[in-house]
Amino acid sequence: MAEPGVETRTRSSVITARAAATFDPVGRSVATARAFVRDTLHGWGFSDVVDDAVVLTSELVTNAVIHAGTAADVLCLRSDDGVRVEVADRYPEREVPIQGTGLSLGSPDRENGRGLLLCAALASRWGVEYSPTFKQVWFQLDLPQRPVGTRSAGPVLPTPLLPVADERVRVAVTQIDRSGAISVWNDDAEHLFGYAADQVIGKPLTDFAAWPHTPGIGTGIAEALQLSRWEGSYGIRGTDGRVLPVYASHLRVRDTNGEPSTVCLLVRDDERAVLQSPQRAPVTDTGTDSHTTDPFEVFIGSPAPDDLDGLLQRTVERARDMLDGDAAFLLLATDDETELEVRASTGLPSARQRFARVPVEAGTGRYGSARMPAVHEDLTVVPGAVPLLNSTGMRSVVTVPLKVEGRLTGSLGVAAEASGRYSNEEALRLQFAADRIALAVESARLGELERLRRGSLSFLVEASDLLAGTLDRDQTLALMAQMTVPTLATWCAVYTIADQASDPYLSYVLHEDEERIDGLKALLSKIAPPDPVPTPGARVWTAPAEAAQQAALLTSKRELGIGSAPPVSSGIGTTLATAAAVGGETVVLPLVARNRVIGMLTLGKPSDDHFRQEILELAEDLSRRAALALDNARLYSERVAISQSLQRSLLPPELPHIPGVEVEVIYRAAGEGNEVGGDFYDLFPIRDGAYGFAIGDVCGTGPEAAAVTGLARHALRLLAREGFGGPAVLERLNAAILDEGARSRFLTLLYGELWPQEDGSAVLKVVCAGHPLPLRLRQDGTVEPAAEPQPLLGVMDDLELYEQMVTLDPGDVLLCVTDGVTERREGTRMLGDEGLTDVLTTCTGLTAGAVAARVLRAVERFAAEPASDDMAILAMRVPEPQHS
Questions:
Q1: What top-level branch of life does the organism fall under (predicted)?
Q2: pLDDT for residue 195 is more than 90
Q3: Contact 175, 159 (CB under 8 A)
Q4: How far apart are CA 675 and CA 167, in angstroms?
């Protein structure tokens, strides 16, 4: 049973229009819902009840999306006697206070619970409807009774001030179905644009509409056709190919079958007064008793955009409409107030002006300074007075400064194609509006700047980590380019300079579109590189854009057969695409490291685009880090090359061929970039029929150990060829090591001399000075040491060493290793001599190469971790005779 004042019966009024929308359960949805209801009711001409409808909608949507935490469905229904608004949420079990019961409707001071209280106070009728899945609150607002003809009226104007129109005003009426295709096309549309109805019906409106591209705004014609109501200017292409500027009013409706469509009324743009809604001040959407109006919202409208680009774009559009201009623009001042950067524009030819810069003081006097209001009645008289409007067709302009606490923060301008359109009166109106928005714009700009700086810090930290993670020159170049594209620029080129006497070399090119890289690289290769100037900061480089435009022009002429060059049938697409890719601003930043220019980082934008100052500052920070990383990579590469060259000199150039003996050596140096460490080997001819071999291990690893390695290997060869026997060779080497003093390191060494015999065997004389004992593998699979241990070298002055003779029969193998093999560890386990013996036992019948490979494989498989010590494996085998 309904309580007094609450109506639950079904409505009987005839519905003449409806509009619906769903809002997500987030805080900003409340403001969006208010704007939806306000625009819908204004579009229906129900301005008398807009205030109450917006207040009630705001409270009910707040209850749904904030307190109930569900999406809100808002439905506006128009009838002959008023409007009904329904707000539904998906939380039907919530308690609903009812009048006349013990439950209270709530206090106006509470955060929630006021929606129904306001419905009772403001609505003609209201009610609550439940279903199993949602709860719906609705209210009806009746239109007040008014005498005919007083709903909307303008002031009486003298005849010369009335809008100018043709003798007959033609209003094109077209209807667009839900797919965007034209379904209705009246006679006036055919007269205005030249198309008969059968030529356009069924085709998308986008085929004929020339929608203006406005920087910072993502709404296109497809989105505009989805709005419940829209008004504004665009163009329609006629049958002659020309674009006729029109002013349009769109209204989205639904037929009796529920199918949505959009009715579009269009007139010539200069006859916009026929359709254009009169300017109205925004209404308050709160339930307070305050009658004051925020001057900011009077100009911007409510809700105000919450992002800087949206706020600036709304500003220029409202400024243009306020002064009935053809174009408007807004520039923000740089931190030092010496330049102004274009941040929003409307009505200008293209987005090419975005982020372009002009000086604050363009000349002498007040009209050359952005710090004072200025009116130019005819720009053709003073060409270049407003650089932003050069070649745009604008004749008259009014500009005013944006100031906060006396400091210049920007400039706002409105321009018209006709001369003499503006006077000091319009300047005062525009200055008043600029004063209202200046603080909000500066606040939004500072917020954007703070977000950008935080993002820049995060970007630089990540970039530093990536650059510090590699010492490879080519990888550093690739990282530099990949970090700038597309984050900072559309394309990037890195030039490097090898030394002071070298010219810059194009080392790396990257474009966000991979198909453009080859064309861009070819273009840059044909022009002289930028000068390697060490001055910090970005400087503009015009050569790529000029070269690309020239190439595109020549290619187009050849394509058309103009000029001396024969016509061509291909290549123009690539040339034009390259010209568009580099047609914007190009800047060069020096790569300076250790007080020397080592290269240049070149960043580019596509056609008619400019860099923001914040982006250039970020690119400069990146270039400093990248230069140091690139120079470090260069130094590292040079030192690695030198180190590897020196290390290779410590190893035998090649192993000699020993008649009747198979020899295999496997060498692994520990440490990245090391080719030689503390372990070494050698095999060399001593004299006819005799060969010397050695395998040793210097204490430690790295360059210090490698130095002793070189001493030992060269000393062995020299002493052996002088005719010294094994013990004498090692004793003299021991003395040479001790002579090194503090730089000396002890050395374990297995040295031997080998004589192949005519009977197929081989005789060896070996001395094992502190080294792991050589192992002999016989044909029957037995393994035994082939020498006895003796003192190592580099510790004692007086050594008395002796040599032992070993004979290798056909099929026998002599295996010599360093302790990197026997001391291979996995936790507490170690391969050891026994483990090596077990591996060698399985090698019977294998060649010397197979024996060495099996030993290495066993060592690698013994532990998962990479080896931390140098390893050397020397295997010698006397092959068995071949039987025919």
A1: Bacteria
A2: yes
A3: no
A4: 94
The beta-strand segments (E) located in 347-490 are: 357-359, 374-376, 396-404, 407-416
Q: What confidence score (pLDDT) does residue 522 get?
A: 85
For residue 279, which of 316, 231, 238, 237 has the smallest C-alpha distance? 231
- For residue 63 the two structure tokens come to 């209850």
Token pair listed for 265: 């009324």
HSE-CB for 826 with a 13 A CA cutoff: 11
Between helix 703-721 and helix 726-738 the angle, nearest 10°, is: 140
- Environment class of residue 376 by beta-carbon count within 10 Å: exposed (0-12), middle (13-18) or buried (19+)? buried
pLDDT, one tens digit per residue, over 137-187 is 899 998 877 655 545 566 677 887 777 777 788 999 999 998 889 999 999
CB 309 within 8 A of CB 346: no
Rounded Cα–Cα distance for residues 35 and 74 (Å): 12
d(CA 588, CA 603): 6
Inform me whether the pLDDT recorded for 218 exceeds 50. no
Residue 490's Cβ-count burial label (10 Å; 0-12, 13-18, 19+) is buried
Q: What is the pTM of this model?
A: 0.44
For the stretch 471-477, contacts whose Cβ atoms lie closer than 8 Å and that sit 24 or more positions apart, written own/partner, are 471/632, 471/633, 471/636, 471/637, 472/633, 472/637, 473/630, 473/633, 473/634, 473/637, 475/633, 476/626, 476/629, 476/630, 476/633, 477/507, 477/508, 477/630
d(CA 548, CA 586): 12
Residue 473: left (phi > 0), alpha (psi -120 to 50), or beta? alpha
Query: What pLDDT does residue 7 have?
Result: 46
d(CA 673, CA 471): 12
Write down the pLDDT at residue 279: 57
Indicate if the pLDDT at residue 107 is higher than 70. no
Q: Which structure tokens are listed for 103?
A: 């439950």
Nearest to 470 by CA among 621, 594, 617, 625: 625
